[in-house]
TrEMBL record:
UniProt keywords, alphabetically: Aminopeptidase, Hydrolase, Manganese, Metal-binding, Metalloprotease, Protease
Manganese keyword on record: yes
Top-level taxonomic group: Bacteria
Family label: Belongs to the peptidase M24B family.
Cofactor(s) for this UniProt protein: Mn(2+)
A biological-process GO annotation: proteolysis
The keyword DNA repair is assigned to this record: no
UniProt xrefs under PROSITE patterns: PROLINE_PEPTIDASE
Catalytic activity: Release of any N-terminal amino acid, including proline, that is linked to proline, even from a dipeptide or tripeptide
Annotated GO MF terms: manganese ion binding; metalloaminopeptidase activity
Designated name of the protein: Xaa-Pro aminopeptidase
Species of the source: Blastopirellula marina
Length: 430
């Protein structure tokens, strides 16, 4: 692990919160993610299962967490099952978690090897009334590949057909949407690494650099600081920025163009998600500045609007109405266009066609209860944009915020965003 150790208190508390939500005499089981194959004998580096991490701090492949709060045997109330670190495994794959290390990381006192899982599962299943199993229930998940959780669910139902099976995901979505203090601190660390990356770019970007060189600068800064890309970075100069998911990052940044950077670092599996748009030559044209400030005003007002109790769809609609007005000011829409605006047919749709933001946490598009209003402890991104392919540029700005009882807290308040700041920092870097 590149990140510094995290106190096991976080995971102890997370399990206690889940235990409180489970009905009497219930069992919950969560599996690690698969190590995904590539070509030939290749495989990707494991992407830790975020639910397993949330409940245990364990990032190691093949691990299983079993939670049975009402177990008769106290040692069966929380159990971690891990790969046994044999000598052969150590030689080929390096250090694996020992039982002691797993207990220190997770706070789970009963740690067993995977070979013990079938028997312990049988003991627990025969005592439990209902079983909560996990699935990826993210609204936009493309579930084309079976996960370990999916395969286990089928095996378990086949072996124990008379149990009552229930969905664990809605409980975890409810819990994970609300970030605790230590979680917000980890997100703040991811934000701070992202800030360092952006400040490095303000010194680096000039006409003639390529998008992939910009990406390489970020990789250096993120990885040196114990982070890494939270998602494939979008480094899009000129009209490339009008392709929302442009990730080729293979073009030259030209004099006079804007450069859109949708980049974020992760830290300890928690993510930052930032977008900035800067002039390649360090100086905004008047038109670029006008569009930029329209987006900046909308971002600031939308941050203020992210209050407890707000529904996402209303928050989105308020931003669309602001962008409508800005587009009139920019000469892109007429007052007649705006008069025809409806929720289903937003007037701004041609220039601002995507969502205003999303929950952020252990996943970049984090889980949250379906259609629930914003609540204290939610972390959200706020990312309005205006896309002008005919003029060869786009502006999107994105900050990460924390929803609190006392109003929104901008976690990226100290990352440069004003036109004058950006110009001054870019000039200072020359
Ligand atoms: Mn985002």
């Amino acid at each position: 692990m590149r990140h510094l150790p995290i106190s096991s208190d976080l995971f102890v508390e997370n399990r206690a919160k889940l235990a409180k939500m489970l009905p009497p005499n219930s069992l919950a089981i969560v599996h690690a993610n698969d190590v995904l194959p590539t070509n030939a004998d290749g495989s990707l580096k494991i992407c830790p299962n975020t639910d397993l991490f949330y409940l245990s701090g364990v990032e190691q492949e093949e691990s299983i967490l079993l939670i049975y709060p009402d177990a008769f045997e106290p040692k069966h109330r929380e159990i971690l099952f891990l790969r046994e670190p044999t000598e052969l495994l150590q030689i080929w794959e390096g250090q694996k978690l020992t039982q002691e290390a797993a207990t220190a990381a997770s706070g789970v006192t009963t740690v067993k090897w995977l070979k013990d899982f079938p028997q312990v599962l049988r003991d627990c299943m025969l005592g439990a009334d209902q079983v909560f199993l996990n699935r990826n229930e993210h609204r936009r998940a493309a579930a084309v590949v079976q996960t370990r959780d999916d395969r286990f669910l089928l095996e378990c139902q086949q072996q124990y057909p008379l149990h009552t099976y229930r969905r664990l995901a809605p409980l975890l979505h409810q819990l994970r949407a609300v970030k605790s203090g230590p979680e917000v601190d980890l997100i703040r660390e991811a934000v701070s690494i992202t800030k360092k990356g952006f400040e490095r770019l303000l010194k680096f970007v000039k006409p003639g650099v390529t998008e992939h060189q910009v990406e390489a600068e970020l990789a250096h800064e993120f990885i040196s600081n114990r982070g890494g890309f939270a998602y494939t970075p979008i480094v899009a100069s000129g009209k490339n920025a009008c392709g929302l998911h442009y990730i080729d990052n293979d073009q030259v940044c030209n004099d006079g163009d804007m450069l859109l950077l949708d980049v974020g670092s992760n830290y300890a599996n928690y993510n930052a998600d930032m977008t900035r748009t800067i002039p390649v030559n360090g100086k905004f044209t008047e038109r670029q500045r006008d569009v930029y400030n329209a987006v900046l005003r909308t971002m600031r007002a939308s941050i203020e609007g992210a209050v407890v109790g707000k529904l996402h769809r209303d928050w989105q609609h308020e931003a669309q109405e602001m962008i409508n007005e800005e587009l009139v000011g920019l000469g892109l829409l007429t007052k007649e266009d705006v008069a025809k605006h409806t929720r289903d047919q937003p007037a701004c749709k041609k220039y601002f066609m995507h969502g205003l933001g999303h929950p952020l946490g252990l996943d970049v598009h984090d889980v949250a209860p379906v259609d629930a209003p914003f609540a204290p402890g939610w972390v959200l991104t706020v990312e309005p944009g205006i896309y002008l392919p005919d003029e060869g540029f786009a502006v999107r700005l994105e900050n990460d915020i924390l929803v609190t009882e006392n109003g929104p807290v901008d976690l990226m308040a100290d990352i440069p965003v004003e036109v004058e700041e950006i110009e001054a920092l870019m000039a200072a870097g020359k």
